[in-house]
Request: fold
Amino acid sequence: MRLEGRSGTSHQALGLEWARHGIRVNAIAPGYIATDLNRDFLESEAGQKMRLRIPQRRFGTPQDLDGPLLLLASDAGRYITGTLVVADGGHLLSTL
Reply:
């Protein structure tokens, strides 16, 4: 299957295509999530400048993705498909 257009819309195209089969397709767009791999950078001066551009003034943790993940994977989200859930501490909104 080939999807046309931007890759950022694949969850929408697949959500539409698979909905009739009872399959939900959604996506989570996390912000900066602190992990062992990036912790040194996030704690650096450059990382702290990035942190200040996030409205919540903090980097996310893997646990911050639990809520969106559980919503989309459980029956609580049974009527949600083709959706992108942004979990970024308001970072995308800060450009408005």
Observations:
- The first helix runs from residue 10 to 19.
